[in-house]
Amino acid sequence: MRSHLQSFKSVLARGNLRRIHHIALNVKDMQASRHFYGAILGLHELVGEQIPRTLAKLVAEGKVANFETPDGTVVDLFWEPDLLPPDPNPDCTFTRAYHLAFDITPELFDRAVQVLRDNEIAIAHGPVTRPTGRGVYFYDPDGFMVEIRCDPV
């Protein structure tokens, strides 16, 4: 019996994909999402010359906002005013993506949880402690699950 990988005619070599370049999320309320990702989670919003030229027109029209993590991963928000989740229960995963996870140092984890609480962000799960570290799960304004996690101490 051939392995699953043997059924492909060609594959990328390990290491060819260097890192996640960006994550694109559809959002219903652009202002609420910009506030959530920028002000509450503290991501840097790209402005002016920082905006990729391929998205500059959409950003100028208010249809896209771009945020960047310190490691250079970009979170693109695409305004979809008619966006409706397939299930009104936010605990039901409604896309093939389960959640977006941000890494934080263990020393700042409890502070991040307090920021969520201070901003009355409903915590879906956690904080939890696992062999892989600590995590807290919550929802963005459109019901997409977000995690803040840290390595074990």
What does this structure look like?
It is a single chain. This protein has 153 residues and is α/β, with parallel strands linked by helices. The chain folds into two domains: 20-81, 2,3-Dihydroxybiphenyl 1,2-Dioxygenase, domain 1; 97-153, 2,3-Dihydroxybiphenyl 1,2-Dioxygenase, domain 1 (Roll), CATH 3.10.180.10. 19% of the residues lie in helices and 29% in strands. The protein has helices spanning 30-40, 56-60, 106-118, and strands at residues 22-27, 44-45, 64-68, 74-79, 100-103, 123-130, 133-139, 145-150. The strands form two sheets. Strands 1-4-3-2 form a four-stranded mixed sheet. Strands 5-8-7-6 form a four-stranded mixed sheet, covered by helices on one side. A hairpin with a 2-residue loop joins strand 6 (123-130) and strand 7. The longest helix is centred in the last third of the chain and has 13 residues, at 106-118. The N and C termini lie far apart (43 Å).
